[in-house]
C-alpha cells in the first residue's frame, strides 16, 4: 500500500468527509492532521466519528486515531463492498453530510443505508436540498441513487431518519457543463414543523411567497405539520426549477423566539440572491460537485453564485487524491467560474 496522503484538516469537517470519500473510492490511504483545529470544538465530534466508522465499514478500512476529539486520523481503505447498514449519528448530527461522504464510494457497489440524526439542522444541507438540488445535479454525471425522507429531525433533539440506496454507476462519469441558468419555470416551497401549531408552517410559507411575488412563475406549495413528535422545530425549503434542468435551492430554520415570518423571509432572501446572480450553481452546491468533476472523463465547467472557503477546500483535497487539473476564476465571496479536467476514473 502506498504512503498515506498527508491532509491538513484545519479548515473543517468537509475536508475530512471529502478525504474519506475519495480514499474509499480510489483505495488511496491518507493521514489527516489538525482535524477541525479552526473550529470552537476541534477534533472528531460524534458526526465526524460516525462518518469515519461508516466509510470504514463500507470499504473494510483500517483506521488509527478514530476516538472522540482526536485531531489526527489515518485511514487505509480496502475494497468497497456491498453494504446494508443502519447508522445512528446521535442527537442532531447531519444525515446529509454523512451521505455526502458515502456517495463517491457507492459508485462501486450497492450501498443501502438507513441513517438516524438531524435532517434539518444548522450548517448542513437539509434533506429537501439533498433530493431537490444535489440529486438532479449528480444525475447529469451519471450518478444515480434512491433517497427518501422518513421523518424530520431538528436541532437539538434530532430523531430524524432517511433511507439511501446507491445504484452502482458506469465509470467513468460524464463531464458536465453547468454554465447556463435557463428560464425559470416554478418555485417549490415546502414549509414544515413538528410539535408546533400548523400555523407556524403556514405563516412561513406565506411570508416567503410574498417576498418572491415579483417572479412570474408557478408557485407550488406544500405544508407539513406533525403536531406530536419526538423532535421539535420548523423550517422552510425553496427550490427554483428551470427549463434546462437547473435547480437552485435555499432554506431557513426556525429557532426559539424566531417569528415564523422571519423564517419565510430569510429563505426567500437566500433564494433571491441566487436567482439574481444568474448562475446555475448556488454557493452550497459548488463544493459538492468538485469530486465528481475530478472523477469524470473530459472537462467540466460550472458558474457559481459565490466562491466559498468550502469550495476552495474541496478543490485542494480533490487535487491531492485525483491529481486533476482545476482552475477557478473569481475571488472569495464573489461569483466564480470553475473548470475541471477530470481524470476519467474507472
UniProtKB/TrEMBL annotation:
SUPFAM superfamilies attached to this UniProt entry: EPT/RTPC-like, RNA 3'-terminal phosphate cyclase, RPTC, insert domain
GO annotation (BP), single: RNA processing
Binding-site residues, ATP: 100, 284-288
Compartment list: Cytoplasm
Domain RNA 3'-terminal phosphate cyclase: 10-328
RNA 3'-terminal phosphate cyclase insert domain ranges (all copies): 179-275
GO MF term (any one): ATP binding
Keywords: ATP-binding, Cytoplasm, Ligase, Nucleotide-binding
InterPro entries referenced in this protein's UniProt entry, alphabetically: RNA3'-term_phos_cycl_insert, RNA3'_phos_cyclase_dom, RNA3'_phos_cyclase_dom_sf, RNA3'_term_phos_cyc, RNA3'_term_phos_cyc_type_1, RNA3'P_cycl/enolpyr_Trfase_a/b, RPTC_insert
Catalytic reactions on record: a 3'-end 3'-phospho-ribonucleotide-RNA + ATP = a 3'-end 2',3'-cyclophospho-ribonucleotide-RNA + AMP + diphosphate
Recorded GO CC terms: cytoplasm
EC number: 6.5.1.4
Residues annotated as the enzyme's active site: 310
Function field: Catalyzes the conversion of 3'-phosphate to a 2',3'-cyclic phosphodiester at the end of RNA. The mechanism of action of the enzyme occurs in 3 steps: (A) adenylation of the enzyme by ATP; (B) transfer of adenylate to an RNA-N3'P to produce RNA-N3'PP5'A; (C) and attack of the adjacent 2'-hydroxyl on the 3'-phosphorus in the diester linkage to produce the cyclic end product. The biological role of this enzyme is unknown but it is likely to function in some aspects of cellular RNA processing.
Family named by the database record: Belongs to the RNA 3'-terminal cyclase family. Type 1 subfamily.
HAMAP family: RTC (MF_00200)
Protein name: RNA 3'-terminal phosphate cyclase
Organism encoding this protein: Candidatus Iainarchaeum sp
Gene name as annotated: rtcA
